[in-house]
Amino acid sequence: MINKFGVLYAGCVDMDDIGYAGTPANERWLPDEQLATVFKKSESFAKTMDKLGFDTFWGAEHHFQREGYECIPNLLMLFVHLAHLTKDLRFGCGFNINPMWHPLRLAEDYATADILTDGRVRFGIGRGYHSREVEVFGNPIIDQDANRELFEEQVDVMWKAFNEPAFSHHGKHYEIPPRVPYRGYELEEITLVPRPKYPVEWWQPVVSASERGLNFMAKYGIKGMIGGGAAPGGASDVVVHKWQEVQAEHGRERELGGDLIISFSVYIADTPEQAIEESRLWAEERVKMFGPLGFVRGLSDAQVDAINSNDPAQLLTADLPTIDEDVKSGGFFAGPADLVTEKLLEVQERYPGLEEVNIGITGMGMPESATLEQMHRFAEDVMPHFNNGG
Questions:
Q1: How many C-alpha atoms does 203 have within 13 Å on its Cβ side?
Q2: What's the pLDDT at 388?
């Protein structure tokens, strides 16, 4: 039964001139003052979510995005700050990107945040998808095999650090600790200081749902988010069933949807037509941002070329995806609150083990005021229909 609702905010600042006819993505270069508004915007969202009874504010780690799309470089620092401004709201790392960290620094920083917030930060990890981000930090993403190999070893290091009083690790990428003299003895093991106050619940995006990826998550008991971050919205029945099967193979019998969070794009308005029209430019901006990165289903090479052309005229004639198609396919819930409620109740019936849903109401270029309005409408008109005390 669904009893918790979260919101994923990837860090987009308010911006003008958006949509297919607006400023091309690669030509947008916002001033520092505008990019830094991501922090005040985060404060506004967190305070509102806390008052309205949402469970988790999920954020995304990203770097170097002068275009203004994803502007939060350090989730843990931000979440410690936001926890001091709120009472009950939890904060989810959706996600810290392992290949942009040394695993022990990430483990230390998370443990510190866990203590300072008394367990209100949720640990999430990912492999990344922006070459501009991961490769600049000196690690692979274009070479997917090398990226996964590094990621998996980093998880192993952090798992030991969180769960063992003292540990060592000897792998391809990390020799922890090095055999060096220290205060009269030779170093053979180390201890994470501090260790987390509470047992760590791990989360990771489910994107390709490959056998290797799902089995790796099941090995460590990592839970999955479908539709988070760049992953396509909504859930494929095939993926949800596959997740359940892999969990069972590792000794975890779960109802369908168990140990998952599923994300859905949502916009509430008096009519579906009004919801679609008000959301249109934000949806178009999402295609401009994510399309060339491979996260918009069905785009042809010609359509990607049109997006990358920096020519709005080409975008308008490239037959790019529309929000109308997304609503028709079931990937976007748009319309009155009772329609959105009905759609989510159908999800609940289809996946009886699902307890948590993320609602996507912070579109690319979407003004802060519009997101706040959607938070209120969802909390007041949809959440009371579920067992969350909303």
A1: 24
A2: 57
Residue pair 304/315 in contact by the 8 Å Cβ criterion = no
Per-residue pLDDT tens digits for 221-280 = 999 999 844 444 445 789 999 999 999 999 999 999 999 999 999 999 999 999 999 999
Q: Would you state the structure tokens that stand for residue 196, as one six-digit string?
A: 């987390």
Query: Fold for domain 4-385?
Result: TIM Barrel (3.20.20)
Report the distance separating Cα 84 and Cα 297, nearest Å: 40
**253, burial (CB in 10 Å: exposed 0-12, middle 13-18, buried 19+):** exposed
**Residue recorded with tokens 């790019």:** 320
Parallel, antiparallel or unpaired: strands 169-170 and 175-176: antiparallel
Q: Under DSSP, is residue 159 helix (H, G, I), strand (E, B) or coil?
A: helix
pLDDT bucket at 329, cuts 50 / 70 / 90: confident
Length of the chain: 390
Residue partners of 371: CB distance under 8 A and separation at least 6: 45, 361, 362
C-beta of residue 308 within 8 angstroms of C-beta of residue 292: yes
What's the pTM? 0.95
137 prior amide bond cis, ω within 30: no
